[in-house]
Design goal:
Blueprint: H1 2-20, H2 29-48, H3 58-67, H4 70-75, H5 84-102, H6 106-110, H7 116-133, H8 135-162, H9 170-194, H10 201-221, H11 224-238, H12 246-256
Amino acid sequence: MKSLLTCLAAAWIALASMQAHGHPPANSPAAYMEAAAKMDQRIAQRSAEGGMPRITEPETSALIDVLSDSHQFLESRTYTVDNMGELMEICGQANRVSMAYALSGLKERIATQRTTDDIARQMTMLMEENVLSFQPELEQLHPFLLRCLAKEVQPLTAFMATLPPQELTPTRLAGLNQFRGGLLNSYSGHLISAGNPALRPSYRRQVLRAMAESSPAFASALQRPTRQQIAQIATNLIHDAPAESRADIEAIIKAMSTPDCTGLCAY
């Protein structure tokens, strides 16, 4: 018993010392923010040199491992209305890092474009090219982002349920619609991308698996016409999909075909 207490005391002292010296617990939002800040520094440095951090670099690989760790930051933590802000910060950082890869080289690409349509067209082309170029990095970052966005749905649903009708103001509902729009763009964009046969099988498999796992949460937040659109995209993909991913696509179709409109869908 004395030996056990001594070990526990030593562990407690080590943990307290680690926190005192600025090292947050491994699964805390602060740990994610710390890794994201380091990644931002590497992105700024590599961008200035005309490139992006690559997973073949040991430090970049270690940071991406942290930034894509669903178990540590999503599955092992409970998010409620009270700490929903922490989750939104994590998802925001995950989205920012993913978009940094997707839009790498944007400034140079649109420098000579004159119209909004031309800029939008070049952005779309650039993103498609960059997903191909940065598959090793995005294969880890994109599934985490999808799972993170799905994780936001439950606490936001709980928050909306606490509001009396008079507090469902146009501003608040507009914010909800903006959130829904973000979910739609992310989910449908990843689904369309996963249908690109030029992408390596491991990327497509990981993204589709994350989409299948998160499809019930996304479906509960999206409204029926939007869900029908996504179900149709998935239906178009399934015939040419690798056999190993067909069950995931079927799960997406099933979730998006539900007639229910409860949760965030009801607002």
